[in-house]
Amino acid sequence: MTKTVMRRLLLSGTAAIAGVAGGQAHAQAVPPSAAATTKAGTEIRNVASASYSVNGVTQTTTSLPSILVVDRKVNLVVERAQDADTQVSLGQVGAAVAFRVTNKTNDVQDMLLDPDQNLGTIVYVGTDNFDMNNLKAYVDTNGNGQYDLGVDAEATYLDELRPDESRLVFLAGDVPTAQLS
Questions:
Q1: Phi then psi for 97, rounded to 5 degrees?
Q2: How many structural domains does the chain have?
Q3: In-domain check, residue 155
Q4: What is d(CA 147, CA 27) in angstroms, rounded to the nearest whole number?
Q5: Most confidently modeled range among 23-27, 31-35, 141-145
Q6: Which helix H or strand E contains 35, and what residues bound it?
Q7: Which percentage of the chain shows pLDDT scores above 70?
Q8: pLDDT attached to residue 5
Q9: Residues 101 and 154 both lie in one domain
Q10: Nearest alpha carbon to residue 76 among 114, 43, 42
Q11: Of 143, 162, 168, 152, which Cα lies nearest the Cα of 78?
């Protein structure tokens, strides 16, 4: 008896194709990057079939379709877009720190921007000895990679960020005129 089974799996962002033929198992892994690009809402249909012979008569049986709808994968990456710390002076207006926000999901996303000076459980090497005034988020409007006071648009969210698309975001504020001791 010869049995052939073909099955496709999509598990945790990794796709694998496996087959069994003539008593031997075969598997082929698809890189996670290929599976990650499957668009949310995509319908995947799987049908298994088995062919075998009994007394020289070949027979085939087919399963009912198994249907899976790809869900939205949520994966946002926020990374510092500059190598050095930002140096500021007392009373400086519009001191900015740059971050790159990347949508690593499989669908278009809107991302909320909420500047906050509460470090919480974030590990920070250095001393946090003052808070900025008038802290706001801005998007690099002209694409020059630099914060331009009065040019870059203030934003409370990133609109329609496509899969694998990045935007440069600045957190900018005014440095107090006096520092507490």
A1: -125, 135
A2: 2
A3: yes
A4: 50
A5: 141-145
A6: helix 32-36
A7: 73
A8: 34
A9: yes
A10: 114
A11: 168
